[in-house]
């Protein structure tokens, strides 16, 4: 078998047992890697109803067949588990040196189960596997943790770690790596913390099995150079992802004041041009020639790596327009190990609830210093910080007063930085994202606003959402690679089957990946069905406030506009029909048979009948 190592490393922190397992070529072809491996393992091995923060949950680190092999942006790793934030399947990806080193230690998947008796970290050095005490770094932030690890293992080592937010089990704690890389928004850092697992370190030098290693080496080097040249010609890296901020403000899609507003006259103060002007360093993931990590000095003088999502959610969404203060909030989130999107969304919800008299507190929009103090309190679970650490949906349920409708989340996960009070297609993308309110699955908003009618609820939009889910949430999450060369500078999708085939010796086309992607999405939905048998189409809805006429803008390009509930429901039905899901949003028996998921469906049917 080429392209895959064929090996899984299983570590039980309760017993200290370490076991090397193998998987078949059939398994590899069926699930490809990354997210595909993760959801299949979790579906097979987790009993429905387990406590996500208990020892029965499993923390998965998984890579795909092109991961770590020099080619455009192949430095990605998927982390996955049952989510403590949403209660369903959850994962995330991040750029990290773990990607290559895990494979060079001889593994494509790491499964961590149980719970260590004391704070610990895992070290992989080729065939050697150690579970070591982490008392010296427990209680430390991720920056100090990484420095400590680098002193022991060298800066070339692959590292995944958590900060204090993961240790205190914040439900939106993430896994951190490199300078500003993070992944696993629905609480993957908390799952590590629940296992007393502070970090994972890997160093390996074994060859990664490839069908044509010399051919891939030459092709990868050539294509990395081409992507770098395309990036320089386009100028994308000058502003990186934050280049979209000015556009969002112009088209009334910017998150402002807990997404109550869609644009703001001061947004230019935190836009991509201002970020580029303040740049002091630039970072990127392994195998990247279009580095997106623009770093500036924050209010306290730290180097803080920023992108659009954390600027949008910690800046305009909190009505904070001092870039150095936004950078400070971002730095704190990175150090504590908070997800920046959920942190910004939850703090904005708190300020909004205070404004509306649905709770009491001393926080207001625009107050950067109080926001910092609230993050500190949340990292320690002190006072109101204990509630903030649980995310906006749980806060809303605690406050009552029907405040849940303006908790800007889907499936319990805070929405990313796109205000869709009048963007039906992007609202559908948020509502149907398999882990909750992420933009990564289907960033359909540019298509919706640039290439079709904004006010359309037609089947062309649902078809585009599915197309992008297959690419972004399927192809890239399984291979595992970064989508930026394709989405930002036009590097063709046709390149990825070429890499895959040269590495594996197979002869796949993009259509093979689309079917595999549909299989992965169907299994994720069956996972949710087992955990929540009563789910229905409301499960795939965006926040209720977007359907309220009183929430419509009073001026600007979408004045008086809002999502219409019956039309959204029709758009959702287009989505279900095109995916061959039933009216509840569950894969049909016909689709199950096509995808070869009969055994998994039989298990799921114990909890909710399939049509």
Structure description:
The mean pLDDT is 97. It is built from 25 helices and 17 strands. The longest helix has 22 residues, at 213-234. It folds into 3 domains: 7-203, Aldehyde ferredoxin oxidoreductase, N-terminal domain (Aldehyde Ferredoxin Oxidoreductase,  A, domain 1, 4-Layer Sandwich); 235-401, Aldehyde Ferredoxin Oxidoreductase Protein, subunit A, domain 2 (Orthogonal Bundle), CATH 1.10.569; 419-611, Aldehyde Ferredoxin Oxidoreductase Protein, subunit A, domain 3 (Orthogonal Bundle), CATH 1.10.599. Helix 2 packs parallel to helix 22 (510-531). Strand 14 and strand 15 form a beta hairpin. Helices cover 41% and strands 13% of the residues. The strands form 5 sheets. The protein has a 6-stranded mixed sheet with strand order 2-1-6-3-4-5.
Write the layout of secondary structure elements.
Layout: E1 7-12, E2 18-22, H1 25-31, H2 35-45, E3 59-62, E4 76-82, E5 89-95, H3 98-104, E6 109-113, E7 120-125, E8 128-133, H4 142-153, E9 158-161, H5 164-167, E10 175-177, E11 181-183, H6 188-194, E12 197-203, H7 213-234, H8 236-239, H9 244-250, H10 272-277, E13 281-283, E14 293-297, E15 303-306, H11 308-314, H12 323-336, H13 340-355, H14 368-380, H15 385-388, H16 392-399, E16 409-410, E17 413-414, H17 424-432, H18 445-450, H19 459-479, H20 484-489, H21 495-504, H22 510-531, H23 565-579, H24 589-595, H25 598-604
Helix pairs in contact: 1-2, 2-22, 11-13, 12-14, 13-16, 17-19, 19-22, 19-23, 22-25
